[in-house]
Specification:
Layout lengths: L4 H4 L12 H11 L4 H5 L5 E4 L14 E16 L9 E9 L4 E7 L4 H6 L5 E11 L2 E5 L2 E4 L8 H6 L1 E4 L8 H11 L12 H6 L5 H9 L4 H32 L12 H7 L7 H14 L6 E6 L5 H14 L3 E5 L3 H15 L16 E5 L5 H13 L2 E6 L13 E7 L6 H8 L7 E6 L5 H7 L4 E5 L9 E7 L4 H16 L3 E5 L10 H6 L17 H10 L7 E4 L5 H13 L4 E4 L12 E6 L7 H8 L9 E7 L6 H11 L3 H11 L2 H4 L20 H17 L7 H14 L8
Parallel strand pairs: 4-6, 9-14, 9-15, 10-12, 10-13, 11-12, 13-14, 16-21, 17-19, 17-20, 18-19, 20-21
Antiparallel strand pairs: 1-8, 2-3, 2-5, 3-4, 5-6, 5-7
Helix pairs in contact: 8-9, 9-25, 9-26, 10-12, 11-12, 16-25
Length: about 750
């Protein structure tokens, strides 16, 4: 974070005395620590007090643990074995205690000599190893250990009260080895250049960066740890917010064509033919967008809304306003299914206004063109021609829109649907298609807590649609515990039959496709195994298997079709068309139906192995039902035990339809790395101390401070320390923080 020459040095050079090549390699490969600066920013996970020992009574099985305890007893036994047939095998058994319980350590063979000399009764030490069971007793086999010696003069109380940092470690590198390396590296902390402006640091009473690094690695008191963490939390929040503020500032300097709708143009004609009234939320958000479109620098706005809150309607009105003003609008969708859905629903909503240049088209009409990778040559050629001539005012497509061959007559607005699936480069490539940078509207149906929006989408202004349009029906959600109560699952299929007999349709969603390319082993590995549940050990249920079982069993006689991502686009399209037309009763699908699919007659959804999906994804899927006047029903089927975290997650989804509340639960339950994009999913994350949920206040204040700093000094000429920290962040993460892709 603060790359100064001394901190840029590869770890081995200054730390030769404690770091051999093998250890340096482990640090680099397993912990992502390559330089002295990296090591200084590898903060302790927690601290042990020598007097307050880890409870041996609570040791977890099969986990690597670090304990501080005293040797109660040590015995050397001889035994005969295949390697030592004449009874010359040796086993050292050491019993340690911490007052709460006892634990046995065992050492074998030549490994007994050193501990036999050192681990004498009364000796205190730190031990690390993997907890296993032998003869129904917990033990550590061949643990690594570090003796805890106090100087003769050192008072016992001081010694007992010292805080021992316990670092995030690996099986190949124990916590105290990292601690030893840090002891050698700590003097370099004095050279850390402070990224925070002095006025900000002093105004908030934060310690300097060198002091924070010393205090987090070698605290004397708990107050030292708190002061260090407060300071380092600010660093992370502030440097990231400065990166985002600079991006906003740079975007605001770009020129753009102001796009104002004409009074009696396409937008007015569209609004006049709407069969319903826009919600207050839609009117308010539309005004924010129209105000942005009327300025001469590009709009950068994130539109987040609940499932079914009418985001597409808001986006369409923005596109029509741009067409009115003589420009073109492009909507980028993440999948072909979704692009086709959008094309169909937009042409339906516009009616004759989408028939520009055609017989029967309205006077003020435009052409709405679809462009996807799988289109035939002739259709593709015509679509490209429509774009370059300006015949098509609106184009809807997939990544195919970004290709070099695609040229626009005058691209004025880019709408990106499901933002989290597009990286910044893709966004920029499409923006580069305009003569001047087009306006940008980014939509997401996954509600994002305010702090995450500020952290991950901080380069965009945010609009929120949280009202559902009139006529949307409530969705009842229930968990179906298939293992505990099999008759509940039978009842679920009866409910599907009842919905179909009432003239409605249903979805059945499975986590896996089930064809030969689908590897159940991989599917199983992707999830963490937990000892308590058998459900996790089998591969996730698959579309092809479930569809066959339902057709022969509980849903026999109903018209069942399957839909998944590996089908040919034409086949997918045909399946969706039949389902939308009501020719199919039950659609058994993967998550390809997660976003954008709009079939108002579908009222029931059964999600198999619901515990294999994330909270936000379940909320998205559930939003596919209850889109018409009839009430929706969503059944979450799971074989997980009642007390498991997975079931609690499903109960949370069943208990509320508030997507913002669910996204908060989701974030609290998952590692934040999942939310902050791929850059965060590895062992190393740039957020070491900052928590995007708990530190809402710090993030909000850091955003304000960052905006002020960037406005007064966009190039950070007077803040070299901040510039260095920023270069380190953006170099290290390759701007993935800002990439959300």
């Amino acid at each position: 974070m603060d790359l100064v020459p001394a901190l840029e040095e590869p770890l081995q050079q200054p730390l030769k005395s404690v770091l051999g090549p093998a250890t340096a390699k482990v640090m680099a490969e397993h912990l992502g620590l390559r330089t002295v600066g990296d090591l200084l920013h590898h903060y302790p996970r927690r601290y042990e007090e020598r007097g307050q020992l880890t409870h041996l009574a609570d040791l977890p099985m099969d986990e690597h643990v670090t304990v501080v305890a005293q040797v109660a007893d040590a015995r050397l036994h001889s035994f005969a074995s295949s390697k030592a047939p004449r009874g010359k095998g040796q086993r050292l058994e050491v019993t340690i205690t911490d007052g709460s319980g006892r634990l046995q350590l065992v050492f074998f063979g030549s490994g007994v000599h050193k501990p036999h000399k050192e681990l004498l009764p009364g000796t205190r030490a730190m031990f690390a190893g993997k907890v296993s069971v032998f003869n129904r007793r917990l033990q550590l086999a061949h643990p690594a250990y570090e003796l805890l010696k106090g100087d003769a003069e050192e008072a016992v109380e001081t010694w007992a009260g010292t805080l021992i940092p316990i670092y995030p470690a690996t099986a190949k590198l124990e916590s105290w080895k990292i601690g030893k390396a840090l002891q050698t590296a700590l003097p370099s902390a004095q050279e850390a250049v402070d990224p925070l402006p002095d006025s900000l640091r002093e105004g908030r009473g934060l310690v300097s960066l060198p002091e924070a690094l010393l205090k987090i690695h070698r605290p004397h008191t708990k107050a030292d740890i708190a002061a260090a963490r407060d300071r380092l939390r600010w660093d992370e929040a502030f440097v990231l917010q400065v990166a985002l503020a600079r991006r906003r500032h740079a975007d605001a300097q770009l020129p753009a064509v102001a796009r104002r709708p004409t009074p009696d143009g396409l937008l007015s004609a569209f609004d006049d033919r709407l069969p319903f009234t826009l919600t207050d939320g839609q009117v308010k958000v539309s005004k924010e967008i129209f105000d942005d479109l009327a300025t001469e620098h590009p709009m950068h706005r994130l539109l987040q809304g609940e499932v079914g809150s009418g985001k597409t309607m808001v986006a369409l009105r923005a596109m029509l306003a741009v067409v009115d003003a003589g420009g073109q609008a492009a909507m980028l969708a993440p999948t072909e299914v979704l692009a086709q859905q959008h094309h169909q629903s937009i042409t339906e909503m516009m009616g004759e206004l989408a028939e520009g240049g055609m017989l029967g088209g309205a006077e003020r009409a435009t052409k709405v063109t679809l462009l996807t990778g799988s289109m035939g040559t002739a259709a593709r050629r015509q679509a490209l021609l429509d774009l370059v001539t300006g015949e098509a005012g609106i184009v809807i497509g997939t990544h195919a829109l970004i290709e070099d061959k695609v040229q626009f007559h005058d691209l004025g607005l880019v709408v990106v649907d499901e933002q989290h699936r597009f990286g910044v480069e893709q966004r920029d490539a499409l923006r580069g298609k305009g003569k001047q940078p087009p306006h940008l509207l980014v939509m997401t149906a996954t509600p994002i807590p305010r702090t995450v929006a500020m952290t991950v989408f901080g380069d965009l202004e945010t609009s929120v649609l949280d009202q559902l349009p009139a006529g949307r029906s409530p969705i009842a959600s229930h968990v179906v515990p298939a293992a505990d109560k099999p008759h509940f699952l039978s009842r679920a299929w009866e409910r599907v039959r009842e919905e179909v007999s009432n003239g409605h349709q249903a979805y059945v969603v499975c986590p896996r496709i089930g064809d030969e390319d689908d590897d159940p082993k991989k599917a199983g590995k992707a999830r963490k195994k937990s000892a308590e549940d058998e459900a996790e050990k089998r591969p996730p249920l698959a579309v092809l298997d479930i569809a066959a079982q339902l057709a022969k069993g509980p849903l026999q006689g109903l018209r069942i079709e399957v839909l998944h991502g590996r089908m040919h686009p034409d086949d997918k399209d045909a399946v969706m068309r039949r389902f939308a037309a009501g020719d199919t009763d039950v659609l058994v699908a993967t998550t390809v139906i997660e976003v954008g699919v709009n079939v108002p007659n579908a009222t029931a959804m059964v999600i198999m192995d619901a515990d294999r999906f994330g909270v936000s994804q379940l909320h998205q899927l559930r939003g596919r039902v209850g889109r018409g006047s009839a009430a929706g029903l969503c059944l979450l089927v799971s074989e997980m035990p009642e007390a498991s975290p997975a079931r609690q997650r499903l109960n949370a989804v069943a208990s509320t339809l508030d997507g913002f509340e669910l996204s908060r639960i989701d974030l609290e339950q998952r590692r934040e790395g999942d939310v902050l994009g791929q850059a965060q999913s590895g062992a190393r994350t740039s957020l070491r101390v900052l928590s995007v949920i708990e530190d809402e206040e710090v993030i909000a204040e850091a955003r304000e401070e960052a905006t002020k700093v960037v406005e007064s000094d966009p190039e950070l000429e007077h803040l070299p320390g901040l510039r260095t920290a920023l270069d380190a962040l953006l170099d290290e993460e390759r701007e993935q923080y800002l990439e959300k892709g």
